[in-house]
From TrEMBL:
Name of this protein: Acyl-CoA thioesterase
Domain HotDog ACOT-type stretches: 17-129
PROSITE patterns listed in its UniProt record: HOTDOG_ACOT (PS51770)
EC identifiers of the protein: 3.1.2.20
EC main group: hydrolase
Superkingdom as given in the UniProt entry: Archaea
């Protein structure tokens, strides 16, 4: 393949559902702060891993993190709770893959759940030499997949607008 970006071929198509990834982590003392709640860095680590796996499942390539959008920790995850991290691909560029990552806390004793954070990551697919390589086109063949994709597109847009408003002092 030539280095000319106008002369690239996508390696077929892949669906949003094929990228879906769910991880669970039991919050243990090593990943808590002095209040018995999840360390933000631990949660970001889990989100990065889950997002990368979604990107790899989608592209059948190694993926590296290019960026992570703004993150608000809206609810804590307490010691002994289960962190559920879900990710899926919602948009692609030539070599980049946009992934929505949601985290929720589950209390295994009561089955209560609460949303704790959401962010949007961009990963880059790499070939065997570590060079960015084209990714498949995204397909959303079911209404459910299209709705998830649109939810992620809209959510990212809303999140970025909120960040810009904060930066402007609103």
């Amino acid at each position: 393949m030539s280095d000319d970006p106008s002369n690239f071929e996508r390696p077929g198509t892949a669906t949003l559902a094929e990228s879906h990834t769910e991880m669970t982590e039991l919050l243990l003392p090593n990943d808590t702060n002095n209040l018995g709640r999840a360390l933000g860095g631990a949660v970001l680590h889990w989100m990065d891993i889950c997002g990368a796996i979604a990107g790899m499942r989608f592209s059948n390539r190694q993926c590296v993190t290019a960026s992570m959008d703004h993150v608000d920790f809206i609810a804590p995850i307490d010691l002994g709770e289960v962190a559920v991290v879900e990710a899926y691909v919602f948009n692609v560029g030539r070599t980049s893959i946009d992934v929505k990552v949601d985290v929720r806390a589950e209390n295994p004793k009561t089955d209560e759940e609460r949303r704790t954070t959401t962010s949007y990551f961009t990963f880059v697919a790499l070939d065997e030499d570590g060079t960015p390589t084209p990714v498949p086109e995204l397909e959303c063949p079911t209404p459910e997949e299209e709705a998830l994709r649109q939810e992620a597109v809209d959510g990212r847009h809303e999140q970025m607008e909120a960040v810009y408003r904060r930066m402007d002092g609103e």
